[in-house]
Structure formats: C-alpha cells, structure tokens
Design brief:
alpha/beta; Rossmann fold; Arc Repressor Mutant, subunit A; 2 domains; 5-stranded parallel sheet; 4-stranded antiparallel sheet; globular
C-alpha cells in the first residue's frame, strides 16, 4: 500500500499542505491541486488510487465532480467538507463518493480512511467477499458465517453482495433500493428495513453477533463493519 497514489483537491492552501504532508508521511505518493479544472487536467494523465476531494471548490461543486468522475472511473473518492449535515452527506454519497470526512479531522484518521479506500478498491474484482466471519462466494452464490452455511434468497444475496463489496462504505438507502430493487423503488425505505432485518436475523442465527455487522448510519444508510 506504500507508494499508492493519492490526489488531494482543496482550495484552502493551508489544509492542502497539511493533508499532503500527512499522507506523504504515511508513505503515499501525493499530488495536490486547488480547483476542479486542475483536478480534471491531472486526472487525465496521472492514475490516482484515491481522490481526496473538498466538497466546495471555487469552480465546482464536489457532488457534481463526483458524478463526473464516476462516468469514467471507479477510483475511490473521499469527500472532505466543513458541511456535516446528513443531507449533504447523502448527496455526496449518492453522487458516487465512497466516504465522507468532516472538517476538522485528524491526520491519522484521514490516513486510515485512505488505507481503507485502497483496500476496498483492490478487493472489488475478487469472486469471494469477506467481512469478519462472513464469506460470500459470488460464483456459487454461497454464504458462510463462521463456517456455517446460510441460505439467502436472491434479493438477500444481492443486498449483501452490494454491502460486502466495499466494507465500511456507507451506502445510502436510495442507492441500495435503486441498485437491488430498481429505480422505481428508491423511496420505499420500508422494504429495505424489512430485508436488512431479515439479513441480520439470519446472520445472528449462524454466529452470535454477526447480524450487528450490518450497521445503520441514521439518516444516511447502511454499511458492513468488518
């Protein structure tokens, strides 16, 4: 993981320098820019492993930039913002951000978030997803929890597959509903809560406490905490 490329975008020069120094101190290869336009120019010729993106830039909104990046790349995006309200978090996550860090933050926290984003990105092509005692084989569609096989319905499998694809990433309710059930269900939060409850019950029945790995971030969505 040492030497992984991190592109930092922030129009506050002091914060940009501090983030660059902190990530370089952890062994990352870091480039820093102060605008959306500079991001576009460097992103086209320098393959970053992670993008750390300020939500409010002088020439662009962070959520719009996330959507723009997602049209051409799956690179993990960590949003930085002084705006900590749930609506802004949901907007950024729905736009394609993988994580959301509220200013002020500690450098060790950001280092850990970057390392987690790199691990998630590296594991996306695996045919077996692992989170704690959960082992989901995508080819055989088999779930083992603490070594015990657990039967899943097709919908439960798709929901768990999405959550386990990037452990610790928060998926908004609208994203989960749209991805698993279809865009016409993106506001049907009741059905999502029902299936989350079913999954937690099955996981806990196979291994005590396993259901608690599915964590609810109130007002935002759900994540698997490995």
């Amino acid at each position: 993981m040492s030497g992984a490329r991190v592109l930092v975008v922030d129009d506050d020069a002091a914060i940009l320098r501090a983030v660059q120094r902190g990530l370089q101190g952890a062994g990352f290869d870091v480039r820093g820019v102060e605008s959306a336009q500079a991001l576009r120019e460097i992103f086209a010729r320098w393959k970053a492993d992670v993008i750390v993106l300020d939500l409010l830039l002088p020439d662009g909104d962070g959520a719009d930039i996330c959507r723009e990046i997602r049209r051409e790349s799956d690179v993990p995006i960590i949003v930085l913002s002084a705006v900590g309200d749930d609506a802004r978090k949901v907007e950024a996550l729905d736009a394609g951000a993988d994580d959301y860090v509220v200013k002020p933050f500690s450098v060790p926290e950001l280092q850990a978030r970057v390392r987690a984003a790199i691990r998630r990105g590296a594991g996306q092509t695996s045919t077996v997803l692992v989170a704690g005692p959960l082992r989901l084989d995508l080819a055989s569609r088999r779930l083992d929890v603490g070594g015990q096989p657990v039967h899943l319905t097709p919908t439960e499998f798709e929901l768990l597959r999405l959550l386990m694809g990037q452990p610790s990433r928060v998926y908004t309710q609208r994203h989960l509903l749209s991805s698993v059930w279809g865009p016409e269900f993106q506001d049907d939060t009741h059905i999502l809560r029902t299936f989350i409850h079913q999954l937690r019950t099955k996981l806990s029945a196979a291994s005590q406490g396993a259901g608690a790995l599915i964590v609810n971030d109130p007002g935002v969505g759900y994540r698997i905490e490995a």
